[in-house]
Structure prediction request, 131 residues.
Amino acid sequence: MNPNELIDMASQSLKNAHAPYSNYRVGAALLCADGTVFAGCNVENASYGLTNCAERTALFAAVAAGQTNFTALAITASGEPAPFPCGACRQVLAEFCGPDFPVYIKQADEYAATTLGELLPHAFDLGNGQR
Ligand code: THU
Prediction:
């Protein structure tokens, strides 16, 4: 699957976003090593801090379905700014994905191709071999 296909899947999930407070809708699509894709959207709450980002929605759905090996992530948003993942999502991704893990972030009609290592150098790791 190429980055544009994964971005299209993220854009589909964006349509399900629950974002009545920010009006900033985000979609994410997480490609698993077996070719399965899990999508997610942001889910906001009247108690703002309970909001779940699109990236974590996708990742948690994948893990709940038994997936732990991931190949790439695409993220799209309904407007500006481009949806570079928040710090919490970066650390949650680092639980399962290494520094070379590709992340594609839609920006206007193009996408930025980066890696988890670029987004989160020195990710926290207990170093106990649990990952
Ligand atoms: N949000 C995401 O879903 N992913 C990101 O990468 C950045 C922010 C959501 C959280 C909230 O619903 C809205 O965007 C505004 O912060």
Remarks:
- The mean pLDDT is 96.
- The pocket of tetrahydrodeoxyuridine is lined by residues 19, 22, 24, 26, 42, 44, 51, 53-55, 83, 85-86, 89 (CB under 6 Å).
- The chain has four helices and five strands.
